[in-house]
Amino acid sequence: MIDDKDIKKKRFEDLDDVCDECKNVDESVTQNLIMTGFKICKSCRVSKTIYPI
């Protein structure tokens, strides 16, 4: 059986503020993760919106 501590630890591993696209540390990564479900920074989000390819 999975321990409750392991589940809590897994939840907070995603909140490390590292962008999946550019690998830079930015505060907006956690905000975008909550709002959109993607771990990308503000600049990568804008570039993906303008140039979606």
Question: Would you mind describing this structure in some detail?
Answer:
By secondary structure, this protein is an all-alpha fold. The protein has a domain at 14-50. It has 3 helices and no strands. It has helices spanning 4-13, 28-36, 42-50. The longest helix has 10 residues, at 4-13. The model has no long low-confidence stretch (mean pLDDT 83).
Oligomer: single chain
The SSE order reads HHH
End-to-end Cα distance, whole Å, is 42 Å
Instruction: Tell how many strands the DSSP assignment holds.
Output: 0
Instruction: Summarize the biggest pleated sheet.
Output: none
Can you tell me the overall shape? elongated
Brief description of this entry?
Helices cover 53% and strands 0% of the residues. It has 53 residues and is mainly alpha-helical.
Features:
53 residues; 53% helix
Provide the fold topology.
Elements: H1 4-13, H2 28-36, H3 42-50
